[in-house]
Design brief:
mainly alpha
Length: 215
């Protein structure tokens, strides 16, 4: 148990140190800007999986190997690519709506805050529930396959506790955490926005996995 904790904390510390040192942070930012999809895949595959491991540790009171960790990492990576795209789409869309007068933003720093809130709220109230539901379905499906069950996506969908999903993941985590957190993200300069968004992927893996395992 202690070994697992030391390894997890050491990995987080190593990632934090890499992002904290100006020279390596510049490399990280430059590569992210040059290859956004590849870095989106890598960041979510690694960091969200670390969040998932922590969730299992909190629920089961010990470090356990997540079933199907490799295919789950790949799913996280694909979802990371989608998030990179959605960040750009929603940012451009909200700015376009503000410029056309379809959304009121005001002036000065207040406009910047309100615009960031618009982006975060609209993205989390439209894309996020679909994104999180997709993850829940693929997560359960991979668990079933790894356990030897011959399940289909339709059978998995019928087995999921959608009531609990809507109450906790959608009803609580989105308004209480994700909308405020992403509002901060869209207020940050680009170089820090990338780093902050990467750190949030750990929390994303933690929340989604904890919500599933806690039952």
């Amino acid at each position: 148990m202690k070994k697992g904790t030391i390894l997890w904390i050491s990995a987080i510390a190593a990632i934090g140190a890499f992002l904290a040192v100006p020279a390596t942070r510049e490399i990280f930012t430059a590569v992210t800007n040059r290859h956004p999809y590849i870095m989106g895949f890598v960041k979510f595959a690694v960091l969200a999986t670390m969040g998932e491991l922590l969730a299992a540790r909190l629920v089961f009171k010990k470090w356990v190997m997540v079933k199907g960790i490799i295919p789950k990492m790949c799913i996280w990576g694909v979802l990371g690519i989608l998030i990179v795209l959605m960040f750009s789409l929603y940012t451009a869309g909200v700015h376009g709506a503000v410029e056309k007068g379809l959304l009121y933003a005001g002036e000065g720093y207040f406009a910047k805050i309100l615009t960031a809130l618009y982006i975060s709220a609209i993205m989390n109230l439209t894309f996020a529930p679909v994104f999180m539901a997709s993850h829940r379905i693929t997560d359960v499906f991979i668990d079933k396959v790894c356990s030897g069950d011959k399940s289909t996506f339709s059978s998995v969908i019928s087995e999921i506790d959608w009531s609990g999903f809507l109450k906790f993941v959608v009803g609580k985590s989105i308004p209480l955490f994700w909308i405020p957190a992403h509002t901060i993200t869209f207020l940050l300069p680009d170089e820090f926005k990338v780093i902050f968004a990467a750190s949030l992927s750990i929390i994303l893996g933690l929340i989604l996995s904890f919500a599933r395992h806690r039952k």
